[in-house]
Structures are given as C-alpha cells and as structure tokens.
From TrEMBL:
<protein>
    <submittedName>
        <fullName>Protein phosphatase</fullName>
    </submittedName>
</protein>
<dbReference type="InterPro" id="IPR001932">
    <property type="entry name" value="PPM-type_phosphatase-like_dom"/>
</dbReference>
<dbReference type="InterPro" id="IPR036457">
    <property type="entry name" value="PPM-type-like_dom_sf"/>
</dbReference>
<feature type="domain" description="PPM-type phosphatase">
    <location>
        <begin position="6"/>
        <end position="217"/>
    </location>
</feature>
C-alpha cells in the first residue's frame, strides 16, 4: 500500500465529563497511513491526556517496525508522563495485503470490504477471559480490562491481520452498544461512515465516549467524489 486512503473519524463525549478517546493517523511520504485509536481509562483529564499521547506515539511509529512496536512506542510515551493516566489502544499498520493490527484492552479493529464486517481483535477484558474458559461473566466484568498501554508486557499485546482494503476502529462506546449487524448496516449507508456509527451508538443510549475511525475500502473510495471527514 503506497497511497493514503480515504478515511474519516468521529467522536462524541456522551454523558461523560470529558472525552477520553483519541485518534491518531500519520503517513510518511510515499507510504500509506498508520492509524491508531485510544480510549483513556477513566473519566478524567489524565485519562484523556494518556489517550492522546498513546494514539499520537503509535501512529508516528515507523511503519516497518510493525504494530507491536507501535504499541510499545505508545507505552514509552505514556510512562514518560507524570505517573497518571492510562489507556487502551489499537493500532493498524499498512502492508500489501491490508493492515497488521496490534492492541491492548477492549478497543477493536474490524476488516471492512464494503459488504462484510469482520472483527479481527479479541477483547482483553475479564469478561472475555471467563467466556474463553467456558464460564458466564458478571456484567461488570465487561468493563475490566486485563491489559493496558501502561501495564502490558510485550507478550500480552494482541496481534491480528485485517486482510482487506477497508478498516474500522472503534472504542467500546460504539461496539458495546451496537451489534455487529447494526454496525454493518450503518456502514452500508454511503453517507453514514464513522459519524453514523457514533451517532447510532449515542442515540441507542450509550453512556460512554463513542469514537470510530473508518478507512474506505478501495473499491468504494474510488466511487466517492467527496470524502466524509469529521474531526475527532
């Protein structure tokens, strides 16, 4: 991949005190963009700052070093803060077959080809841990992450491949509010995009920050004359 794709992002604070979600994107000359989405742990300025620092550091990590190195760059940046603030993070680094993805926590990445939406990440939460071991989790476990930017060891960082031209990154304020089918139906509307996902999540009663980043599949991007751009 050697050209910057059409992408757009949207974010809403919802009923929280601050918006502790952040998005980062960076493309060096002659390269496609690396994308990152971070969700600060908690509802505080420190959480928001950690998310912004993590997303920026991850997106600006050298593409050739891969997504795990991007997570570790974000970790170094967050640990260099004043000891306060943490975040969960997903980062997508382009390669010829799509995107290499790494993550910590419960932010998600989906492969999106304009028709099919496929989740490629696996939540690092206490609830998912119990499900993976055949047990039904308590509801509060959905919000307890088992890895984060500040605390994760390298071997705890999740990795996956989104092997299509399109990509969707979301914070849990989107994907824990909307089913996969609903998300796909929203994305199928050409005018919706990232803003449509966020608006639908908040409209459905979302109680968290809601953020989405959508990279258009190539075959759809070629049909669009005006990209939808909503700043997070």
């Amino acid at each position: 991949m050697n050209s910057t794709p059409i992408w757009h992002t949207a974010s809403e604070r919802g009923p929280r005190t601050v918006n502790a979600d952040a998005v980062g994107a960076f493309a060096r000359h002659g390269h496609s963009a690396t994308f990152a989405l971070a969700d600060g742990v908690g509802d505080s300025p420190a959480a928001a700052r950690a998310a912004r620092v993590a997303a920026s550091a991850a997106a600006r990590s050298l593409e050739e070093n891969g997504p795990v190195a991007a997570i570790l760059a974000a970790q170094a940046a967050v640990r260099a803060l004043d000891g306060k603030g943490d975040a969960v993070l997903v980062v997508a680094v382009p390669f010829e077959g799509g995107y290499q993805v790494a993550w910590v926590g419960d932010v998600r990445a989906y492969a999106w080809d304009g028709v099919l939406l496929h989740q490629v990440t696996h939540d690092h939460t206490l609830a998912q841990y119990f499900r993976d071991h055949g047990q039904e989790p308590a509801p509060h476990m959905e919000h307890v992450v088992t890895t984060s930017v500040r605390t994760a060891r390298p071997d705890e960082i999740g990795t996956a491949v989104a092997g299509t031209g399109g990509l969707v990154l979301t914070s849990d304020g989107v994907h824990k509010q909307l089913s996969l089918t609903t998300m796909r139906d929203v994305l199928a509307r050409p005018e919706a995009g990232a803003a449509g996902l966020v608006e639908t999540a908040i409209g459905a009663g979302g109680r968290d920050n809601a953020t989405a980043l959508v990279v258009e599949p190539t075959r759809l991007a070629d049909l669009r004359t005006i990209p939808i751009v909503t700043a997070a």
